[in-house]
Amino acid sequence: EQEMLSSPLRRKQRSWFVKAKSIVSEYRIEYYFIVVLCIAFCINGSLKAACSYNFEKCTLNPARIADLVVLNVHVMTIPFSLITLSGLLVPLRRKVKKVAEQPYLVVRYVTRGDSPHLVKTVVAHARKILEQCRDLGTYRIEVVTDKSLDLDCEIVVPKDYVTPNGTLYKARALQYALSFSDCPHDSHILHLDEESMISVDLIESCNTFIVENPSKIGQGIIRYDRNWKKNGLQSLMCTLAETNRIADDLGRFHITLSTGYPYTGLKGSFLLIPNWVEKEMTLDQGPEGSIAEDAFFAIRGMGSNLEFGFIDAVLDEGSCFTFADFVRQRKRWCIGIWLCLFYAPTKFHVKVALAIHLMIWCCVPIGAFFLPLVVTLKFSGIVNLDELAIIEGFNAGVGLAALLIAFFFYSNLPLYLFPLQLAAMPLTLIMETCGMVYALVKPSLDFYVVRKE
Q1: Is residue 93 very low, low, confident or very high in pLDDT (cuts 50, 70, 90)?
Q2: pLDDT band for position 348 (50/70/90)?
Q3: Could you write out the DSSP letters of every residue in 103-157?
Q4: Highest mean pLDDT: which range of 161-175, 366-380, 382-396, 403-417
Q5: Contact in structure between 271 and 217 (CB atoms under 8 Å)
Q6: CA–CA separation, 142 vs 439, rounded Å?
Q7: What is the per-residue burial (b if ≥16 Cβ within 10 Å, else e) of 49-61?
Q8: What is the full DSSP assignment across 49-114?
Q9: pTM of the entire structure?
């Protein structure tokens, strides 16, 4: 518990580094140094590889289909790297202000009720945290569940409850809570998953965000390394794969939310929404908006000119336990985003960024798999590697920088796992790609919930 209450940025330094640490902490010098160093290192290596060949033979031959395919796939990954780089370079606000106002915050968990012990543990932990923050605001816990868990804060969704638009799964449960909860109209709702562990730093950051941006929707950083020791090798490998999602929070989500609009979607957890905004928008999005209800809500919100922001705090959650859970989860995300593009009731220009993101997301693992193929084909004389040198160096540098920052500054994983983190990257790409392929081969409208206990 004490580890959860500590700052999310873990730095173990000696006392004579205190002054230097404060300067680095204020301006995030270590972030910029890592980013620049990684990009420079990777581009330098790529250029050396390119220069080792005869540049007179480096012209792209349009007649070679292999050249065009490989080059186009790699070019498609450049926007993703640029977005990530922008997010890493935009400063995060480190300090939490002590606000005079006391906001009303509703901490709302959602669960099917299949893990009662886990939910009760999480709620007990949340009560301890909120007790420490009682002087900072007014707090309330709600657990929205399909099955009774014998909690005094639960909202049980009736089995026969049907929304006007036929919304399903998680969105249906949240719509019921939205309709029948008696929380104040001017309160803010912090949406969490059943395994989410909050901290004092997170609550203080939410309070600051509410006071400074009372009408904005906020989202923060989530790490997925809780209980990584307890569930075997598959769980460890899934945890290492989820480190990329921390990097995604620091890059893509940070830069898009900092602009005020979630161009590439939202996550359904660590989502802070004003109660009156949620009541006005509702979560009754129909069956098509129930698979990736968070991204669907984000697109609808942009279409309604709602404003969004980024919360510089970290929420603790757990990763998938098995490879099968990991693949099925990615399948649901892929199908859900496709449904957002086709069925979200907004104009096309609002969806363009999400469509491009989905296309890039599909190209990133393909591009990574092409790299060893390109090297092999280069030595066989089929493909010219030289045209890809700078692209590969830039993409690799940004990806490595984001991974280093996510692992060393935000993850709770021990340092000795970092070599395994790098070694596991090919497996991560395979798992991500399997999820996309599974979505194409066997599309369905089911809402797969990964096992958390």
Answers
A1: low
A2: confident
A3: -EEEEEEEE-SS-HHHHHHHHHHHHHHHHHTTTT-EEEEEEEESS----TTEEEP
A4: 161-175
A5: yes
A6: 34
A7: bbeeeeeeeeeee
A8: HHHTS-GGG-S--TT-HHHHHHHHHHHHTHHHHHHHHHHHHSPPP-PPP--SS--EEEEEEEE-SS
A9: 0.85
